[in-house]
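Complex 257.
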Amino acid sequence: MKDYKLLKISVEDHIAIVRISRPEALNALNSEFFTEMKSCLLKLDANPEIRGLVITGDGKAFVAGADISEMVNMTPGEAENYSAAGQDVFNLIGMLKIPVIAAVNGFALGGGCELAMACDIRIASNKAKFGQPEVNLGLIPGFAGSQRMPRIIGLGNALLYLMTGDQITSTEALRIGLVQKVVEPERLMDESLDLINKIVSRGPSAVAKVKKVIRQGLEVGFTEGSILESTEFGSLFGNEGTEGMKAFLEKREPKWN
Ligand code: CO8
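Predicted structure with octanoyl-coenzyme A bound:
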């Protein structure tokens, strides 16, 4: 896949790595970023060769937020539309069948923290700093951070960090479950690739369905989510699930399609 202006794309062993690359502005997100990211995600989704995605940032930031210089003169209507359009792009990440890891190399503030939270799993460098500092600007999150953060770190922690705007160290992020692993900066990409390669070595339909039932289940009640789980559980029989179980009983490696 070709690079975009703000996104550098590489593919290693069926894993796509998307690097957000506007280091002079600490990778701040502007409308051009959202256009490029949407196109990139749709292309990755349509490519059966791609089995996993790692998103990271170039330079000392993952993403230091939405681009304040672009937002400052927006009218209320323009800001609302921009917020909704950005949410649509971040929601796409959760709808991809492939697993998506955020490899958080540095500042993940505002829209950057929202992007990391939109990914399936977060691995952070021990230099990373998270936070939703919008209240310092007289704003609130606009890319669904107010909805994702309490689902990930709980109501009290989300209110604490959204109302103070305080930065969150990687140690604290690990303690509250905002990230799943913290590593030395030079190990960040290797650890992220190791993890995603482990995930894609499992049954691909099963992995996609785990993502689907967890994410869709969070949108509905327990009963509806459990029905969805039964449906998806059943759909694995006669194909990937049957192959996986046969391989176990025959003491051989499964052959995934
Ligand atoms: N927007 C635009 N430019 C930025 C941003 C940003 N969010 N963050 C950094 N930059 C720019 C700086 O202006 C500076 O540019 P220049 O060199 O031309 O002056 C360059 O990046 C380097 O930044 P600093 O010199 O400030 O670097 P430091 O290492 O001193 O500080 C910080 C790093 C602490 C990350 C600091 O840059 C900072 O506080 N940045 C802003 C963080 C922030 O408030 N983020 C939240 C933004 S609001 C948001 O994300 C809302 C999301 C929802 C939007 C919904 C749509 C309507």
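The CA atoms of residues 9 and 18 lie 5 Å apart.
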